[in-house]
């Protein structure tokens, strides 16, 4: 399968990173979002991140300019019709993703591979509601996309070998490493990572430690580069809660019960870095713990 044009749905933290690495690797990128503001912010972020890579001597000025030229933004989902591969990276809500695929499919070529960057939602279930379950799979990048080496590739029950091989070839062209995961709730990385983050929120909720002591403990005591609450803010607390709900519903085990404090932060709109407030307040010069 010859993949040259990649459509990306959702231009948030993940979508802009995916657009960045795809265009830098030489793919033509069509990036869409319902929000014009998100598209503009994505282009500004990609430009800033490429400038930083130029500053560090990792990317030439000519490659930066060519990369930016390969990214076309649009608010019309139908403009992604010519994509050879689509990566859906919109909000982590099944109804949102399902509606995107329904609206997009009539515009696609029959050969287009459809993928989702979902952190947790069933690939098999998303695939079953499309016209091409054999050409559907999970393409799960890590955050921040330009920095993180891993891409989880998730096979749905119907995904065919050609589709998997084509996606693995894209990961190789990006210079990243693929890990293959079967389609069970939250796959590999988040099946292990999210319960740890949720447990850190319980530790805070029960008063065992403060935000600072919990994060310091895991950084200095377990050699983690970021504390779990800092990491939760980085991922987005809405995304963390959505993943815990998928684990809880999908595996029907109370050990995945989302911490009520995590729910409270999300209900307050304190979603972490992206909304300037979460377990830390980012509105000043240095992050300040909110508890
Ligand atoms: P985000 O909130 O930063 O961005 C989501 C974007 O989707 C927003 O710009 C929103 O306007 C857009 N959107 C919503 N509905 C849409 C629609 N119908 N059509 C087009 N665009 C739409 O979220 P994010 O962190 O970028 O997460 C996106 C996806 O990536 C989720 O499925 C999430 O689980 C997954 N993911 C997130 C992380 C992470 O660390 N944040 C890591 C890996 C995967």
TrEMBL record:
Site (Important for catalytic activity): 140
One Gene Ontology molecular-function label: NAD+ binding
Organism superkingdom: Bacteria
Cleaved signal peptide residues: none
Gene3D superfamilies in UniProt: N-(1-d-carboxylethyl)-l-norvaline Dehydrogenase, domain 2 (1.10.1040.10), NAD(P)-binding Rossmann-like Domain (3.40.50.720)
A Pfam cross-reference name: 3HCDH
All copies of domain 3-hydroxyacyl-CoA dehydrogenase C-terminal, residue ranges: 187-282
A biological-process GO annotation: fatty acid metabolic process
Assigned keywords, A-Z: NAD, Oxidoreductase
Family annotation (InterPro entries): 3-OHacyl-CoA_DH (IPR022694), 3-OHacyl-CoA_DH_CS (IPR006180), 3-OHacyl-CoA_DH_NAD-bd (IPR006176), 3HC_DH_C (IPR006108), 6-PGluconate_DH-like_C_sf (IPR008927), 6PGD_dom2 (IPR013328), NAD(P)-bd_dom_sf (IPR036291)
Sequence ranges assigned to domain 3-hydroxyacyl-CoA dehydrogenase NAD binding in this UniProt record: 5-183
Binding positions (NAD(+)): 10-15, 33, 92, 97, 119, 143, 274
Record-listed E.C. numbers: 1.1.1.157
Enzyme class: oxidoreductase
Family listed: Belongs to the 3-hydroxyacyl-CoA dehydrogenase family.
Xref: NCBIfam families: PRK05808.1, PRK07530.1
UniProt protein name: 3-hydroxyacyl-CoA dehydrogenase
Taxonomic classification: Bacteria, Pseudomonadati, Pseudomonadota, Alphaproteobacteria, Rhodobacterales
């Amino acid at each position: 399968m010859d993949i040259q044009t990649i459509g990306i749905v959702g231009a948030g933290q993940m979508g802009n990173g995916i657009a960045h690495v795809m265009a830098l690797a030489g793919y033509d990128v069509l990036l869409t979002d319902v929000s014009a503001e998100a598209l503009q912010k994505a282009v500004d972020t990609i430009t800033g991140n490429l400038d930083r890579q130029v500053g560090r001597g990792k990317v030439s000025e000519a490659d930066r300019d060519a990369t930016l030229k390969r990214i076309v933004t649009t608010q019309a989902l139908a403009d992604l019709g010519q994509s050879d591969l689509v990566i859906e990276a919109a909000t982590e809500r099944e109804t949102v993703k399902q509606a995107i695929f329904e609206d997009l499919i009539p515009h696609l070529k029959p050969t287009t591979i459809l993928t989702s960057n979902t952190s947790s939602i069933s690939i098999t279930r998303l695939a079953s509601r499309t016209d091409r379950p054999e050409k559907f799979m999970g393409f799960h990048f890590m955050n921040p996309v330009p920095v993180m080496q891993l891409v989880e590739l998730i096979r749905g029950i119907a995904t065919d070998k050609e589709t998997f091989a084509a996606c693995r070839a894209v990961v190789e062209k990006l210079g990243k490493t693929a890990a293959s995961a079967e389609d069970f709730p939250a796959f590999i990385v988040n099946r292990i990572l999210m319960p740890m983050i949720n447990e850190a929120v319980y530790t805070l909720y029960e008063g065992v430690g403060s935000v600072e002591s919990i994060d310091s403990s895991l950084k200095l005591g377990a050699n983690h580069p970021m504390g779990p609450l800092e990491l939760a803010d980085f991922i987005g607390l809405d995304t963390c809660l959505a993943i815990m709900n998928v684990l809880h519903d999908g595996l029907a085990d109370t050990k995945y019960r989302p911490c009520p404090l995590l729910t409270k932060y999300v209900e307050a709109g304190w979603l972490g870095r992206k909304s300037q407030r979460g377990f830390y307040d980012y509105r000043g010069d240095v992050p300040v713990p909110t508890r």
